[in-house]
Design goal:
single chain, mainly beta, 0% helix, globular
C-alpha cells in the first residue's frame, strides 16, 4: 500500500476549478468541485486562478495552501489540526466548521490576500493561533457550545460573530490588529463576553 503510512503527503495543483458566483446576475452560477483524497495526512493545494474546491471524506490532518490564485473552500477535512496558507498570495476563504474533534485545530495561518476564515470555537484549541498576513482579513466566529478561549489572534482586522449555541467568553489579551467586532446573526441567542 503506497499510502498506507501515517505521514503520507500529496500536492494537488488546481487552476480555475469550479465556477465562481456572478453577483451581477440573479442566476446561480456557483459550482463547487469536491476533492476526496483518502489516506493522505499532509495535503498541499497549489492554486492558480479562481477556485471553488471543497474537501470530501479526507484523512488530512494538515492543509497547506500555496500559489497566487484564490481559493474558496467551504468544507475541510474533518481530521484537520492545522492550516498553513501563509505562502498564498491570492484571496483565501476557508470554512473550518467541518472539523469534528473538540479543540483539534491548533493553528491557522493565511497569506497576503484578503482572507476570510470561519471557525467554530468548539473545534479550535482554546489558546490556538490564528494568524493572517497582509490584506484585509476577517474571522467569522461561531460556537456550537459554551466555550472560554484565549486565542493568539494576529492580522485580522474584523471579527464577525455568528450563530452561538452556548455562551462565549473570549479573552482579547493576545489580540493584535483587530479594529472591528460585528454581529452577523440576528438569531444569536447566547452571550459573547470579551475580556482583556
Amino acid at each position: 500500500d503506497v499510502v498506507g503510512g501515517t505521514a503520507d503527503a500529496l500536492t494537488l495543483s488546481v487552476n480555475t476549478v469550479g465556477v465562481q458566483e456572478d453577483t451581477t446576475t440573479d442566476a446561480t452560477e456557483l459550482s463547487v468541485v469536491t476533492a476526496t483524497i483518502n489516506d493522505i495526512e499532509e495535503l498541499t493545494i497549489n492554486v492558480t486562478g479562481d477556485n471553488q474546491v471543497s474537501m470530501g471524506a479526507n484523512d488530512a490532518t494538515s492543509l497547506i495552501v500555496t500559489g497566487e490564485g484564490s481559493l474558496n473552500m467551504a468544507t475541510v477535512s474533518t481530521a484537520l489540526t492545522s492550516i498553513n496558507a501563509s505562502a498564498a498570495t491570492g484571496n483565501i476563504t476557508l470554512d473550518t466548521t467541518a472539523v469534528n474533534a473538540a479543540n483539534a485545530l491548533t493553528s491557522i495561518s493565511t497569506g497576503t490576500g484578503n482572507d476570510t476564515v470561519t471557525v467554530d470555537t468548539d473545534d479550535v484549541l482554546a489558546n490556538g493561533t490564528i494568524a493572517a498576513g497582509e490584506g484585509t482579513d476577517a474571522l467569522n466566529l461561531v460556537g456550537g457550545s459554551a466555550n472560554t478561549t484565549q486565542l493568539n489572534l494576529t492580522g485580522f482586522e474584523t471579527i464577525n460573530l455568528g450563530a452561538m449555541a452556548g455562551a462565549q467568553t473570549i479573552s482579547a489579551t493576545n489580540f493584535t490588529d483587530l479594529t472591528t467586532i460585528s454581529v452577523n446573526d440576528a438569531n444569536m441567542d447566547e452571550s459573547v463576553t470579551f475580556v482583556n
